[in-house]
Amino acid sequence: MQILKKEVTEFELFYDLIFAYAISKIASILLVGTDHLLSFKSLGEFLMLTLVFWTIWTYQTVFANRFSIKNKLSALFLFFDMFWVIILAQSINVDFERTHFTFAGATSILFFSIALQYYLKMKSTDNEIIRKLCIQLAVVLVVSGVLGFISILPFGSYWLRFAIYAFSIFITAFFPIVTKKALLDFPTNFEHLTERYSLFTLLLFGEAVIAVASTILFNDIQFSSVLFFLLIVVMFLFYNTIYKSGIDRQKTTAGLVLIHSHYFVFAGLELSIVLYENYVKGEIDPLFFVLCLAASLICFLGGTLVNMVIYTKKEYNYLPFISKNILYFVGWVVIGLLLQDYTAPFLLVNILFLLFFLYKVKQELKMQVE
C-alpha cells in the first residue's frame, strides 16, 4: 500500500499541548514524604497514570497518522477529546480513590470517542485492509471503555474496581502488538510518526525547563540550578541526536517499537526531572535519589536508544556498543553512590557522563555510515 507524505498539522500540535500539560501534572502525585522518600504507591500511580495518558494520546496519534484529520468532523472530534483530557488532567490527585469516578469515566468517554472515529473510517472505505484494522482497534477501545464504566459502579472494594480499570488500560495499551499483522498490511507513515513523537517529547522538555525555574529565586541563583538546567539541555541533545541522525525515517514499518518505547521515554524523562528537582532543593534522601535516578535514566536512555537499534539506517551490529555502555552506566552508578551527599559534584558528574554517552552515540553513528 502506498504511503503518502504527511506533515504534522496545527490541529495535532494544538491537541498535543493539553497532553503535555497532563503528563507534567502527573508529577504532582510524586510527593516526597517526611522520610525524604517517594512512596512505592505514588511511583506505581505515576507509572499507571502516565500509561493512561500515553495510551489515549497514542491511539489518536495513530489514527491521525494513517488517516487525514483535515476535515471538519475530525477537527470536532479533536476539540471534543481535548475537553475530556482537561477533565482527566484535573482529576489527577494524590488520593486517586477520591477522583476515580471522574477519571475512569473520562477515560471511557475518550476511548468511545476514538473508537467511533475508527468505526466511521471503516464505514467510509471499501479497502478490506483498512476495514480490518479499524474494526480491530475500535472493538478493543469499546471493550476497554465498557470495563472503565464498570469500574465506577458502586460494587465491591475500591481495589477490585481499580484492578478492572487497570486491566482495561493494559489491554488497550498493548493490544496493537497482537494486531501487528494488520498494522503491517497498512504500515504507518513513519516520517510523520517520528516527527509527532519527537515534537511531543520536545513539549515535555519545555515542562522540564519550568521545573528548573522552580529551583531559582530572583535573588538567590544556586550553582546546582545551573547544573540542573545543563542536564536538561544534554538530555535534550541526546534525544534529538537519535531522532535526527539515528533513525531511518523512511522505513516501512508498523512503528510499534517507536510507539511503545516512548512510554518509557516519557515516564523516564518526567521521573528524572522530579528527582533532580527535589535533589537540588535538598528534599530527597540522596541514596534513594541515586537508585531511582538510575532506573529513570535507564527508561529514558534505553527507550531512546532502542529506536536507533531497531530503526537503524542500515544493517549494523550494535551489540559491542551496548555492552560497553552498560559497563559505563554501572560505573556512573558507583561514582554516583560515592558522591550522593555532594549535590554540585554529583550533578556535574551526571552532565559529564551524559556528554560522554552522547559522544559515544555520535561516534557510533559516524562509524555506521563509513
Automatic annotation (TrEMBL):
<keyword id="KW-0812">Transmembrane</keyword>
<feature type="transmembrane region" description="Helical">
    <location>
        <begin position="132"/>
        <end position="152"/>
    </location>
</feature>
<feature type="transmembrane region" description="Helical">
    <location>
        <begin position="100"/>
        <end position="120"/>
    </location>
</feature>
<feature type="transmembrane region" description="Helical">
    <location>
        <begin position="318"/>
        <end position="338"/>
    </location>
</feature>
<dbReference type="InterPro" id="IPR010640">
    <property type="entry name" value="Low_temperature_requirement_A"/>
</dbReference>
<feature type="transmembrane region" description="Helical">
    <location>
        <begin position="12"/>
        <end position="34"/>
    </location>
</feature>
<feature type="transmembrane region" description="Helical">
    <location>
        <begin position="344"/>
        <end position="361"/>
    </location>
</feature>
<protein>
    <recommendedName>
        <fullName>Low temperature requirement protein LtrA</fullName>
    </recommendedName>
</protein>
<dbReference type="Pfam" id="PF06772">
    <property type="entry name" value="LtrA"/>
</dbReference>
<feature type="transmembrane region" description="Helical">
    <location>
        <begin position="46"/>
        <end position="63"/>
    </location>
</feature>
<feature type="transmembrane region" description="Helical">
    <location>
        <begin position="158"/>
        <end position="178"/>
    </location>
</feature>
<feature type="transmembrane region" description="Helical">
    <location>
        <begin position="288"/>
        <end position="311"/>
    </location>
</feature>
<feature type="transmembrane region" description="Helical">
    <location>
        <begin position="199"/>
        <end position="217"/>
    </location>
</feature>
<keyword id="KW-0472">Membrane</keyword>
<keyword id="KW-1133">Transmembrane helix</keyword>
<feature type="transmembrane region" description="Helical">
    <location>
        <begin position="223"/>
        <end position="242"/>
    </location>
</feature>
<feature type="transmembrane region" description="Helical">
    <location>
        <begin position="254"/>
        <end position="276"/>
    </location>
</feature>
<feature type="transmembrane region" description="Helical">
    <location>
        <begin position="75"/>
        <end position="94"/>
    </location>
</feature>
